[in-house]
Specification:
This protein has 110 residues and is α+β, with helices and mostly antiparallel strands. It contains four helices and four strands, in the order βαβααβαβ.
Length: 110
């Protein structure tokens, strides 16, 4: 059965090293630059936050993220999840998260 692995990571050197490792092992997927709801709202000139924090003042918002979508055979899922854990130090050095969505139907050549 095919699975969709969805990952959101800080856009940093560790995330890019992970992508290089996945590519070297023959995995392919789709990445997209993403941002949090908070960052999106803070970049909207019509949005006026009621409460802010020092990080927002210093960094003018929140860090950008990168999202990764990979369709995998279930048998290869744990290998990729373990690589993500390794390169993010279990999401301690590179913040983010991952989720797996079983695909009831899939057509294509992945």
């Amino acid at each position: 059965m095919k699975q969709l692995l969805f990952v959101i990571l800080e856009n940093n050197d560790q995330a890019h090293s992970l992508f290089k490792e996945l590519h070297a092992r023959g995995y392919n997927g789709t990445t997209a630059s993403t941002s949090s709801i908070s960052r999106t709202l803070l970049e909207d000139p019509n949005f006026e936050p009621i409460i802010g924090n020092l990080r927002q003042v210093v960094n003018s918002g929140f860090e950008s993220n990168i999202s990764l979508y990979i369709i995998l055979d279930e048998s290869r899922l744990e290998e990729v999840k373990n690589l993500i854990r390794k390169y993010t130090d279990h999401f301690q050095n590179t913040h983010g998260g991952m989720a797996v969505i079983p695909l009831a139907s899939f057509e294509g050549s992945f």
